[in-house]
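S.,

Sequence below, as promised.
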Amino acid sequence: MFLIQSQITTLLLNISKGRLGLNVESKTQVPGKAWGPTAAEEAQVLVHDGDLVTGILDKSQFGAKSFGLVHVI
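The prediction came back faster than expected:
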């Protein structure tokens, strides 16, 4: 998990290079309990200054949704 998280962070940092830090807070379509009984925080995606802090990226972050990752970038 950490390896993928760091790769996404690297990608986000390079996309937003030379601009203000990328900040996104959104909910996922997949409920956190789908990832396990103690993974409730995975239903909330938090990107702070281009660093993926928590969450599982799904269609709601990449689709044509206002303030998703594609919209913000």
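The mean pLDDT is 83.

Coffee later?
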